[in-house]
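Translate sequence into structure tokens.
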Amino acid sequence: MSSSSPSAFFANDTMQATTSTNTIVIIDGTGLHMAISSSSNAAADQDPVLRLPLMEAELAARITDGDHPSASAVEALRTSIADAKTAAEFGVRKSQLQFYGAFSAGDADAMSVVWSDVSHVRCVHPGMASLEGRDAVMESWRQILTPPDDDDDDDVAVFAIEPERVRIEICGSTAICSCVERTPNGGQLEAINVYKRENGSWKMTLHQAGPVMMMQ
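Result follows.
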């Protein structure tokens, strides 16, 4: 069993890498071998989510190895993979909560933190053309989340969007989240949110939502 736990990996989700790590993967007739070198970080300090594809490849190589790999080594690797997947899902759900929390509170500053400022971003608001680039996307959110001038109640949630039927698919350093957004008046929107793993956190790179037509 691995000594790492999902909670330990989740704690790493709030950390930022301070040094770079070079990973070399060599595949030969005897299986897959990984050589990891780091100037100051031990292997346990690396982002487990980013190492997940390598661990999965190593597991596949060990299973198909004709030399009958150690059962304990295979089990330990499977445990590490399961922990990394759990940590990844926790991290993505955390970012989802931050996104809909900022949306419902009408908090443009909090919304800005959710979105990536490194990767190319895109946003498609319901019934509108797509917006490309962080400046255009964030300006649209500032306009949407700014309360009307005659709104004297600062405590009222502007939108109170509730995500339901959330599904998360994690593919390496990218997470795809689908859900149904329910509005206070009973309306529903189908939404797709895409997050990218950046410096130990999941940052939004795409939001797209459209109304659901209710069948009679």
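Note: DSSP finds five helices and eight strands in the chain.
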